[in-house]
Amino acid sequence: MTLQKRHHQILHQEDDNIVCIKTNLCSEEDTDQRDAEQVQRQEDLAPPLRGRTEGGEEEEEEESLQDVLGLKAAPSQVDEDGAQVKKMTLFLVDRLFLGGELTATTSRLTFDTQIISVFLRLTLLLSQVSGQTLVSELHQRLMDHQVTCHRTCFSLHFGPIRIDGRTELGSVPGMKDGGALMNYSVRDARLHLRHVGDLFRSLDAADAYDGVNGRSLSYLTFYTSGHEGKESVSKRGSCVDHRPPDHVLPGCKDRPLTPLQPVRDDRKWIQCLRVLNMSSWNPPPGNRKMHGDLLYLSVLTLEDKELNITSSTRGFYLNQSTAFVFNPKPAVPRILCHSLVDLLSQITPGSSSSAVHLDCDGPKSSVSGSRDWNEELQGSRELPRNSLQERLLRDQTVFKTSSDFVAVATRGAVAVIDGSVMPLNPSDPPHMQMFIWKNLFFSLGFDVSEHYQSLGGDAAAHAAALCDLRGVEAYTRVDTPGLHTLGTALVDYKGIRVIAQILVPGILEKNQDQVVYGSNDCGATVSTHPRFLELLDKTSKSLRVQRHLVLDQNNVSVELCSAVETKGIVGNDGRCYILDLLRTFPPDLNFQFSASGETMRVKEEEEEEVPEECRRFGFPWRHRHSLASLRAELLEAFVQHRYQRYEQMVTEGLSREEDEDEDEDGRRGDGAAGERRHVRTLTQKLRRVVSEACRAVGSVRDSDFDLRFNPDVFVFTGVRFPSDAETRTQRKLLWDAAASLLTNQIPALLRSCLVQSSVPMDGSTLTSVLHQHGVNVRYLGVVLKELHRVEGSQRLDHIKRISISEVLSRSVKHIFRVFLQDVEPAAFSAAVSHFLNCLLSSSTCVLLDSCSDELHARRRYRRRRSQGSRPGLSTECLWARLTPTDLWTRIRTEAEDYYHYTIHSKSMDDVVEKYGVQRISMLREISMKTGIQVRLRDYVFDSRHRPVFVEDDIVNMFPVVKHLRHTCTDASRLMQRAQVVVQQGERSHTHTHVHLQEVLLLRHILSSFSDVAACLRLLGRLSYILEDHVDALSLQERAVMCSERVHGVDHPQTIEDYTYLALYYFSGGQHSTSLQLLYRARYLTLLVSGEDHPQVALLDSMLGLVLHGLMDHELSLKFLHSALCLTSKYHGVTSLRHAHSHHLLATVYEAKGDFRSALKHENEAFQIYKVQVGENHTSTKESSEYLKDLTQQAVLLQKSISHLYSNTDGACIPPPQIFTPSFPTILQQLNLTCGVVLIPLSVFCYQPCPVNEQNRVSPSDCASSVFHFRHLSSVFLLKYIGLLCSLSRMHFSCNNLYFKPDHY
């Protein structure tokens, strides 16, 4: 917050040349409202303050807060009024610097609530510090905190001795609170200026729009702030315009981009200064260096006032220099501040009012020099993990170190590609160069010295980096003590993959062979080490790696517990490191490498090993490298499937043995000897049955089930095995796993999409669904072919469209990567815009502009333009020769070669027309995959005369980073426990709340914001189920902000969070806000996946209901008719979801007075209910009653109209009663649409409902029963009754915490 110094008092000290400045602090009166809200939130977190003394001072709290701040209070004095005064030493200053006469008068030191809140915020910060915290970590925490973020040059002292930054706080005996501000050096001054510059830049939204430096966008407050509270019923049907923009209405084909980032009209960007840079008077002359001058700064304030500031060893002050006169003497007012922010706050009103908004969570510059990344990362992993506090500290340290490593690796990779780093081998070709920057090793994803020639060349080298990263992630997840992996990050930037790794101590030394385990020459020479065997054996069970034998160069058997390429190195620090983990997972035999370039053909002796299931699909297929591997999810699914088979075989075998024992009971001898003989016989039979079952399923042991895979099988790089029999067994096991992917996992994937338990919206969510089922993305061609064979394939049109779009975008990414490697740096904008025009433009005029080179002189006359030729840039560069026809031919070839899918289209226009792929969605996918940043404007793709993109539309290119994702183990365990509690219903929801709150606390400590959003989402839905709508709304708002800032404003998870936030807002009475949120969700859905998607059906149903509640019937009918069309397509015309859509339309038509249309739609709903659930079902009976009521109302309306036109006298016919829906009724329908119904437990007597093998309830089983959870809380029970009970194939999702209708 902004603090204002009312006046200064200079108190004499013992030293005549040193004085202590005492500052009377109080808050600024016109505090910003945003700061007041932050203060209030911090006060809510802080413990209550003790009562005030008679003098009005909070002595105990004041003393404790001063101790926390490290400011030791001086002895108390009494002023003339008798009030007690406490002196605090803020910083020391040279007395000779100050002008004027020193006085010894004192003034009362006052604190108000906001000052105490600042101190309490520091108290909460330091309360998280343990005895194992390093002084350097505490230093960084203080720099990151809002109160002290502008200070960089300070240290922690114990008495007169300064504590080293590498010292743990708990190792200092008698440690007490205390701090001191240090003198600056030139290095400290430059670091301070850079840090202050980062803080000032955090006020600008440029980094947030770019998504860099820890900044990101969130537009939730644009739709939620400034809206009304609960709306009264009297306001319904008023003249409020609820109509959305035209591009949100159903049927609109326009997809503008400008609404993606809305701008508030009253938004004012905060600015502190206009200019802050180094002065031209640098460096200081020798005589001024003798006075402590370090740097000179030039400042232009918001009031257009030019200031010159001196950075000295003691701090910052104004000097008398101008742009033309050098006068370094202090200027008036003579103010010396240890922080530049403090000085600017005092001398410029604009900086003072803006300092409150400094964002300390934005970009952070490290004040330390080169860091020993390996020691930090390995040291953090070696921290003790016995208690919860130790594990939290360990996870926090690992997370912080890993995050810093990824940030530095990203900046280093960009610097390497931009040519800002000197290579270690400058004489070698560019693709073979290696770099060291900030103690990190950088290499390029090319085949250096033909190391991957036998595996696929550059394609194998590019894929090996990602395979190695997955291996590092797998071993890091196992987290075996004593086994160390290297910190690794992959950065794809401007078409080149950069691998950033931490240097192993001693790895650059060439005086000795450091590889003591594995092979360094593709299996020609193999070595082993007992220490590595012991460590790797601990990980083999979790990773399903078989311990096996290979032959070395002397035909001697060598035992390994990993792939032969895995290298074990003992570093100079004595730690065991494993490198080159690219074959951690077993190979995928469906995709094999063939160096000849012809169609893949297996040997005759190996052809019989290929399962019939793989042959039916045409496998094995040729792949461009031999590093294709199976995913860990597939291995776990295959092991689970084999374990079920193993159990079945053991059970059947024991049953047969029991039948034989019954026949032998009569021949068995009596006595103890006979019993012992019988027991031995049974034991032998049991062992035989288990052994036969183990051999049948491929277990590595005969005594129990233990399925593992040999990663060196099918490696054609010189690896030899001593036993061919065991090798054949492992080869068969791998073929069975590959066949299981085709016969089990892909059908399971399509079933989950068919019943809509998985509803992908774009390429990223489709990839996530594929990976969850253990299917690699290279199987997209198989998935597309299998889509046509599924019954009801029309209901999977959105999957087909997204899959084709993913094949296209990934093929474009492969081509674009090679395309950029031939582009010179000065032509990136022209080359990228030309590539996008060739891909997405409908115009045939995609040739480059004649003046695409900015340095080329523009022709002024039309005659010269017509006679002149194009510049050399357009004709000489290879990228400029690309045409739309050539590009589309390459895309089709790439899709056929990599994904084995044939695109039967001649251009992008044909794809758009045939499959419904949106160009704007393709642009989004390609931009995210390649790092292209385009200008935010409305692009016209259908123009036949002008290209879509120009050079100025390409704003920038950003690196695409892949790295390890670290999570808190205890928080993950608590999260899983909470999900199990909810799913099993063995505890009350209160206990679940406690578990999730603990998870939330741990997630906040570790700043894992994606997991924080998941936990907030879970808590919000549980609160809504328990009818705590206020808490649900607050939690869901925070979840939406996290999703927007972490995943992106247009991510499918953000869209889902917006949808349920709209539901919570409607339940809270803020209906207009709910409507705006639904409009936002629909607009984002249209951008991401288009209008032909099941998610749009859900949004349109909710929009129709909300508009129905707001009495806007015409607009409601538009959305409900759109929802009806989509439900008929994706759920079927005879589904219960389709019946529900008809019922919603009937209610709106009834409220409108159109009884004929209402009867038509309700009759359709009645016929569906009658066929699906029978005439005696509750839903059918209710629909029948509603039909009778509508018929009566229609008859009354017709009689009234006839009576009016007949002009006859008679009894008055009562007019029909128009049904006006109440908000509780609308909310109940919204909950029904979203699959949430809250019913008190005491109302119903419940009975178990039969559930099939997939935990889904069939309509016939639910006809007379409701879903049941044993031992559930006695407060609420989630049930399906009436219509919801009859909805077919429902399941309970512990991830979503609500009943979700999968298939209607």
From TrEMBL:
Q: InterPro entries recorded for this chain?
A: CLU-central, CLU_dom, CLU_prot, GSKIP_dom_sf, TPR-like_helical_dom_sf
- What Gene3D superfamilies does this protein's entry cite? Tetratricopeptide repeat domain
Q: What would be one Gene Ontology cellular-component term for the protein?
A: cytoplasm
Which SUPFAM superfamilies did the record assign? Hypothetical protein c14orf129, hspc210, TPR-like
> TM segments?
none
User: GO terms for biological process?
Assistant: intracellular distribution of mitochondria
User: How far does the signal peptide extend, from start to end residue?
Assistant: none
Q: Where is the composition biased (Acidic residues)?
A: 56-65
| Domain annotation Clu: ranges | 349-592
Sorted keywords for this record are: Cytoplasm
Q: Give me the ranges of the annotated region Disordered.
A: 29-68, 351-381, 652-677
Q: Its domain of life?
A: Eukaryota
| One MF term in the entry's GO annotations | mRNA binding
Instruction: Give a single Pfam family match.
Output: eIF3_p135
Stretches of Basic and acidic residues bias are at 33-44, 372-381, 665-676
This protein is called: Clustered mitochondria homolog
